[in-house]
Every structure is written in structure tokens, then in C-alpha cells.
Design a protein that fits this description.
about 400 residues, alpha+beta, four-stranded antiparallel sheet, two-stranded parallel ribbon, 16 helices, 8 strands, about 55% helix
Length: about 400
């Protein structure tokens, strides 16, 4: 399972483009799930995973995949499977999906569409397929995830049995299994149980959206935000009623991709557009730590851009317009930057007047300066110097 990479932003000095295109990616969900039941059936879970793979169940490919899935579900519901004890049934379901569909492990496989079309799979697509078919076979199965991996666990008589779905022999990893026995030999396989650092058991609905997480991660890496952001918004919207930890996880994924887009705007000298986009995100989805930090950086850089071009008036205007949207007292850092720039400007004007021996002009400069910055220690020192040479 892929992790969505964050672009690290920094406070940078750039000349901004001030023209707004406002041609932003949509921040509305692109995937809508119409099932109303609180607990989805195995088929509904599979269809949800398809939708989050950006494969509509209404197009020809989608219909073909659904037909294949239904055939597989019919098999695992047959008495050949259901008559077996639960442990044997779980192991048989895993071997069945490998015999019937899964052909080649490829980490970059992002969607159920690819898995059903080519047989290539990764931990997410194989685990979702196992989850759905094992449930259809009457097993109590839950999805597990780490930051970089997905697997399943089957609960049998209060015992939790892990299933490493990427491996044909992955039912109960760590248990030695016979794969061939003859009169003169006996071959075993042993699948070492991985160390699943930071593993979390998540809801069925959250688990089947991991195809969407994979796709968002790939699109984020290639800056394809027009598809990535609406898909991330779809997961956020779909899981809004799940538990708080899952909501926070999916919100973090959404924040990563939208802030990466804003940071890319900043790198293109479009800081004003970045501000506008982030305000739209906050208005629609609410704020977060990541959004607030990126928003502050965008405002800060915009102010610096104006100051670097000598446009103090617009620097002050942006600050006044945006200061109330900046959290954690960070607006004061921007004001301090503006005041420092103004202070230096006044000091340089004062120095020019002194060097020209125009004491009256120097006095006028300081009077104006101290009205605007009455607490400036630099300007107070300038005044003391002026008084000392009169």
C-alpha cells in the first residue's frame, strides 16, 4: 500500500503572479456510493472498492469485472467451501483467489480494475478481494493496515488469525505447511510472520477505500491533482460517519494532496492563487493543522513578494485582509516583517538626509516614521542621534 507523500514547504522569496486563473481542481467528491445500509454486503463492499478504483460498475469493463466477482462469490458460497471448518475454509478461500485470479504480485498495482484485468495485484487489492469473498463464505474477517501495508485477520473461536493475502500460503503466517509429500520426501513451506509495525484494524468501509488511497498516492506523485483531489475528497466524505481515528487518517490523506497542490502553486509564483484555493478548501471541509500551516506560508510569501518589489501598500493590504484567518498568533510574524521593512526604509531615508546635512528633512522623516512605528528602537536611536548633533 502506498503512502501519500507530502511536499515540504518553506518560506521562500518569490515574485508572485498576481493574475488569478482560478482554474483549480474540484474539491467536491468524484465518487458517490448510493448504498444506504449501515452494514454493506460482501458484494457492496466489492463494488465500493471498484468505484474507488475509478471503475464504474455501469461501463463495459465494470460489468465484466462484476460478473467475474459474482462467479467467484458463488463458488465460495457453495457447500464445497461452507461445509469446511472455518480454519480450512479461510485457507481454501485464500488459495482459491490465487488459483482463480491473482497471478503476479506488483507493488504498484493500484486498483481492482488492474487486478481483474491482468491478474497483477498488491497487498490492497488482494486483501480487499479476500475480505469480500471470506465474508461471503461466512467468515468473520477484518481488514488491517499499516502505513505501507494491508492484510486481513479472520476471527475463529475468539482467536485472531492473520492472513498475508499476497502469498498463496499466507493463511496464518508463521505456521509451517506441507506442500508436497511423497514416499521418499516431504516438502514444507514456511511463511515468516511479518512485523506489522503500527497496524490498525479498520472498518470494512475504510478498508475497501484503500484502492482510492493508492490511486491518490500515484496521482499525487505525478501532480495530477484534477483527479487526485476529488478522489481524496470522496474518501473523506464517504467515511465521515466512521470512528474518529479513521476520519483523522483519511483527513490527513486529503490534507496532504491539497496542500501539495497549494505548495506547487507557490513554486510557480502563484501565491495569491494558493491562498484563494486554501480558503475554498477551508470553507468546504474545515480547517486543519496542515491547511493552516500552508495557508500561513502562502500569505507570508505573498507579503514578502510585495515588499521585495517595494509595494508596501499591497503588502499591508494582504496582511489586513488575511490576518484574521491565520491561526496560532502567526499573523504577528507577518506584521513584524512588514514593520521591519518599513523601519529600514525610514532609517535609510533618515541616513540620506543626514549625509546630505539636511537636518530639517531628517527631522521630518523621523516624525513621520515614529507616528507609524512609535516603538521602533532603531528609529528612537536615530532621533537621539539627530538631537545630539543639532
Amino acid at each position: 500500500m502506498k503512502k501519500i507523500k507530502m511536499i515540504f514547504s518553506a518560506l521562500i522569496l518569490l515574485f508572485s503572479s498576481y493574475l488569478f486563473a482560478n482554474d483549480f481542481p474540484s474539491i467536491e467528491p468524484s465518487v458517490t456510493i448510493n448504498f444506504t445500509e449501515e452494514n454493506f454486503s460482501p458484494e457492496q463492499l466489492f463494488l465500493t472498492a471498484m468505484e474507488f478504483s475509478l471503475c464504474s460498475q455501469n461501463d463495459e469493463l465494470g460489468k465484466t469485472i462484476i460478473t467475474k466477482y459474482k462467479e467467484m462469490e458463488k463458488v465460495v458460497k457453495s457447500t464445497e467451501f461452507t461445509k469446511l471448518p472455518e480454519i480450512e475454509r479461510g485457507e481454501k478461500v485464500l488459495k482459491y483467489i490465487h488459483d482463480e485470479l491473482l497471478k503476479k504480485y506488483e507493488e504498484g498495482t493500484a486498483s481492482m480494475t488492474v487486478t481483474f484485468s491482468t491478474g497483477s495485484y498488491n497487498c490492497v487489492t488482494s486483501s480487499i478481494l479476500f475480505l469480500c469473498l471470506a465474508k461471503a463464505a461466512g467468515l468473520n474477517v477484518k481488514g488491517q493496515k499499516t502505513n505501507i501495508h494491508a492484510l486481513c485477520s479472520v476471527y475463529i473461536n475468539d482467536k485472531k488469525i492473520d492472513v498475508e493475502t499476497t502469498n498463496y500460503y499466507g493463511f496464518n503466517p508463521g505456521e509451517r505447511k506441507t506442500i508436497e509429500k511423497t514416499e521418499n520426501s516431504h516438502r514444507y513451506t514456511y511463511v515468516p510472520k511479518k512485523y506489522y509495525a503500527g497496524r490498525k484494524e479498520i472498518s470494512d468501509k475504510a478498508f475497501v477505500t484503500l484502492t482510492g488511497k493508492n490511486i491518490v498516492s500515484e496521482l499525487n506523485d505525478t501532480n495530477e491533482y484534477n483527479v487526485a483531489i476529488p478522489l481524496a475528497a470522496s474518501r473523506l466524505d464517504f467515511l465521515k460517519t466512521e470512528n474518529q481515528k479513521e476520519i483523522l487518517d483519511v483527513r490527513a490523506d486529503f490534507d496532504t494532496v491539497v496542500t501539495n497542490y497549494a505548495i506547487n502553486l507557490t513554486k510557480q509564483n502563484k501565491t495569491l492563487e494558493a491562498i484563494d484555493f486554501l480558503e475554498q478548501v477551508e470553507n468546504r471541509w474545515g480547517s486543519s493543522g496542515a491547511i493552516s500551516k500552508t495557508y500561513f506560508n502562502a500569505v507570508y510569501n505573498t507579503v514578502v513578494n510585495y515588499l521585495n518589489s517595494g509595494d508596501v501598500a499591497n503588502a499591508k493590504k494582504i496582511y489586513e485582509q488575511k490576518k484574521n484567518n491565520i491561526q496560532n498568533g502567526n499573523a504577528s510574524k507577518i506584521l513584524k516583517n512588514i514593520n521591519r521593512f518599513v523601519e529600514v526604509e525610514y532609517h535609510n531615508k533618515f541616513a540620506d538626509a543626514i549625509n546630505s546635512k539636511n537636518l530639517e528633512q531628517a527631522k521630518e522623516v523621523l516624525e513621520e516614521a515614529l507616528k507609524e512605528l512609535p516603538n521602533s528602537q532603531v528609529l528612537k536611536k536615530d532621533l537621539n542621534y539627530l538631537n545630539s548633533i543639532k
